[in-house]
Amino acid sequence: MPLAARRPTRRILVGPVPVGAGAPVSVQSMTTTKTSDVDGTLAQVYALSAAGADIVRVTCNDAEAALGLARMLPRSPVPLVADIHYQYKLALAALDAGVHCLRLNPGNIRDARQIKLVAAEAKARGVPIRIGVNLGSLDKDIADQHGLTPEALVASAQRELGYFAEVGFEDVKISVKASSVPVMIEAYRQLSEVTDHPLHLGVTEAGPPPGGLIKATAGIATLLAEGIGDTIRYSLTADPVEEARAGRQLLEALGLRERKSVDLIACPSCGRAEVDVIRVAQEAQAALAERNLPIQVAVMGCVVNGPGEARGADLGIAAGRGKGHLFVKGQVVRVVPEADMVAALVEEAERLVAEGADARLAAADAGAAEEAERTRLALLDLQGDDPNAVSERVELIRKDLGTA
Fold it and tell me: What CA–CA distance (Å, rounded) separates 2 from 105?
């Protein structure tokens, strides 16, 4: 029996990723690192992207997190959502950082004036907001009136939508999450009847696998089979890479996303890029598409950050001063001329599948890692620490938060 037809919804854009209005159901996850740890967080973002995440959420819970967000955005391979709790000024700071989307919980930013100010600023910048309702943090008056019920979740979302409407902001997606699967399913069913905004599906606090996987799949798959839902997140007590993989596998199992043998990720290019990343990625995608190689492959613009950020991928290549640096699981194994980057990547991919990662790491060219490190240091010396000019955004955020 086929799935029910997808519910018609509006479309929003989270960075370049469309959500709603028939766009492919997207997969989301959230980092578990401190956002102030830029390199560590970016490494996890790349690992999530390699595992199938289309959008990644990061916490923006203090001034240092907002500054970290500004620093990592130019280097992220996927759109980033800032998770905001309690402090509306951090939402404004995240907007100044250039974030692709905000997530606001109506249960912990309750001042209508603050909510409308954030919505107005998001509207001015063309940045969408997710209304993230959680059964565990409802407004007291809503909880008193409705109890911990699906109706309470829907009422909270509608109140927030009302505030947004007052400033003419409509670029919204909504989640109404509960740890109870039946409550979550019924809340989304009710919400789908009263709004055409795209819906973000999830069972909150699902717990560790395997139980968490079962609970999340039960709720998310039920709604997707009914045609409800435009983007999904598994909330597991586990490495978030497991969330991304589970989400992708579920969508493939339901026929909602095309099954791919090779999962190619690429950085979006930034001030450090040494090659035309888009061109190289397209050439690599075309070459690898013809081969049945079930691996994750990364194409990175520079050797300064590339191997570390994309160490979650099975294989990757990073550019640096006319050469390509091939890496397996984040470790450089070969250095090739820039013109041979794609051919070398395909060759190494075939060897990796045939021989395994341990064998390819053992067969690394002598001196490859040292040459990559010399190139990395030379580029740092040439380009400095801030080729993406994020210092101006950082100073702006400090002024916003009164920490300048």
Answer: 35
Question: How many whole angstroms separate alpha carbon 89 and alpha carbon 327?
Answer: 41
Give the H or E element holding residue 328.
strand 323-328
- What does each C-alpha distance from 142 to 123, 155, 192, 194, 347 come to in angstroms? 27, 7, 20, 18, 60
Per-residue DSSP letter, 100: S
- Residues 229-285 pLDDT 10s: 999 999 999 999 999 999 999 999 999 998 777 888 998 888 878 888 899 999 999
Cα dihedral angle (69, 72, 77, 78), rounded to 10 degrees? 0
Residue 1: per-residue pLDDT: 65
**Mean per-residue pLDDT of the chain:** 94
Cis amide prior to 209 (ω within 30 degrees): no
Strand 17-19 to strand 12-14: parallel, antiparallel, or no bridges (unpaired)? antiparallel
User: Which H/E stretch holds residue 244?
Assistant: helix 240-253
- As its CATH architecture, domain 12-253 has Alpha-Beta Barrel (3.20)
Tell me the C-alpha distance between 270 and 70, whole Å: 13
- Topology of the domain comprising 263-383: Sulfite Reductase Hemoprotein; domain 1 (3.30.413)
Closest CA to 213 of 221, 138, 4: 221
Rounded to a whole number of angstroms, the distance between the first and last alpha carbons of the chain is 60
Work out the angle at residue 301's Cα, subtended by the Cα atoms of residues 296 and 307, and round it to the nearest 5 degrees: 55
0.85 exceeded by the pTM?
yes
* Domain ranges (residues) in the chain: 12-253, 263-383
Backbone angles phi, psi at 351, to 5 degrees: -65, -40
DSSP 8-state code for residue 384: -
4: enclosing H helix or E strand: none
Distance CA 61, CA 64 (A): 8
- 146-171 in b/e burial notation, b at 16+ Cβ within 10 A? beebbebbbbbbbbbbebbeebebeb
